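User: Run a structure prediction on this.
Assistant: Running it now.
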Amino acid sequence: MNARAHFGAMAVITLGFIVVGLASATHSPDTRFTVLGFVRDHAGSPMRDRPVQVVRERTGLAFRGKSDGAGFYVVVVWVRDEDRGDRLRVETGGASLVVLAMFDPSDRKTERGTRVDFTGSHAVERREAFRATLDRWLSQ
């Protein structure tokens, strides 16, 4: 194998390890912060196929999702322990709300996240409803 082919093969193998490592890292609760909730119109009816994005204000990195037939959406943001307290802008259509990525860095098992509901142009964080909403979604 010539040097160029050897280098190319090594680059592909290395990239594969990086991708697999990143993919497996997002499966651990201590590497993600989940934002979920509902998108409804002014009358409270679910809005299907509404794009929802969460933007990390410090980095500008955006994570995207879309609401389903019930208006429900889930967006997973990659975080590290030192990202605790980061500002996350959750937005859909013309509505947005800034929330803080709050979690206990020493807790490696509990899912990190919050719930943000949109009704028309109004958004509200319901952090206390996060766990129950996540459990309902995971049980489907």
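Residues 3-25 form the longest helix (23 residues).
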